[in-house]
Amino acid sequence: TILFIGGSTMAELFNNIPKIAYEGPKSKNPLSFRYYDADRIILGKPMKEHLPFAMAWWHNLCAIGADMFGRGTADKDFGTENGTMAHAKAKVDAGFEFMEKLGIRYFCFHDVDLVPEAGDIKETNARLDEISDYILEKMKGTDIKCLWGTANMFSNPRFVNGAGSTNSADVYCFAAAQIKKALDITVKLGGRGYVFWGGREGYETLLNTDVKFEQENIANLMKMAVEYGRSIGFKGDFYIEPKPKEPMKHQYDFDAATAIGFLRSYGLDKDFKLNIEANHATLAGHSFQHELRISAINGMLGSVDANQGDTLLGWDTDEFPFDVYDTTMCMYEVLKNGGLTGGFNFDAKNRRPSYSYEDMFYGFILGMDSFALGLIKAAKLIEEGTLDNFIKERYESFESEIGKKIRSHTTSLKELSDYAEKMGAPKMPGSGRQEYLQSALNQTLFGEA
Ligand code: XUL
Ligand code: CO
Q: What is the pTM of this model?
């Protein structure tokens, strides 16, 4: 079969898979969307604008399902030899066919997802120039764009003790070189953002670690990245992606609150926002919604790595999201935030036994439908106003005379104390009504039985 992509003619790779269309909730066709209807208007905007979905180059085009007990199960050679530039280009072809068939309009990448790393960084950079030319050519005639780029500063053994947090000044310079090039490529591809996930920025033991020095060095590397990025015309947001552990025992960007504190102490908060990943939230002992809320109320909710963990396991499983409670509460936070400057990157992979090309599509259909359904339900929650009204009522006492003074910071401890003495014992605060609200949420989610 021959397919036209970006004006060029090439052999179709996923030739048993048609373009995935919206068929509605009653459809029995597994290769269709039940809920994701790109042009359906929700709260005044088409779904596709609420949900700028992205494909993660690393999981979708590189990962083959290898784990520490066994080799890969999926074939991602795409008819070429792994580790060659022909393979790098075959991944671009596969990625664009995949995104076009699903109506995915963004992609995210690490430098070494795009090309095999050479022994010499000048050669790696030349390869990155070549592949980004190829991607740019491919983007023509499509509406596919780059969501964000990043540098992989955790896989190569040189980063054993971190990148910004390394104990080696030479490795620090190498990290700087990788960031510089990854920024160049991100800007060249029109990326909306640039991500720092501090893969090995952390420690295994405090016995050998100067935490203060390491954190200062990380912040300085970020500052230099901002300076360089702005100097080459990058207007987008930088993001920190918090994660508490894995691979390091302790990672400095533990969770949203920690990362926000870090950004503020080093004066990076104007240029940075957060990229919140669902699985990282649960690893930190938080809900996904908690991390989104903390970022949002601090003006730092920028982008989302859309996936799902397994709370019975203690590591990052990067599953495709299917929990509609979670996607609903995520979209609730995102709608309240007025959307994202970034998007929803499926940092998710098929389970090892789901190794076929078809499974790659099922993964994205599941993720996109779960978020579309979450969006529909979150919009309903906002329109019904049950939660908003309850919360307004719950804090009503701060609308009264003394409450108003507290709210507007126009009182003193002395005045409040006088008030309390006159009042005697306060009445019990209003009930939290959690179970009533949970029932209401179920009703919104499931409606008629
Ligand atoms: C790792 C992770 C990364 C970042 C990008 O847990 O989430 O893939 O999203 O470096
Ligand atoms: Co991620």
A: 0.96
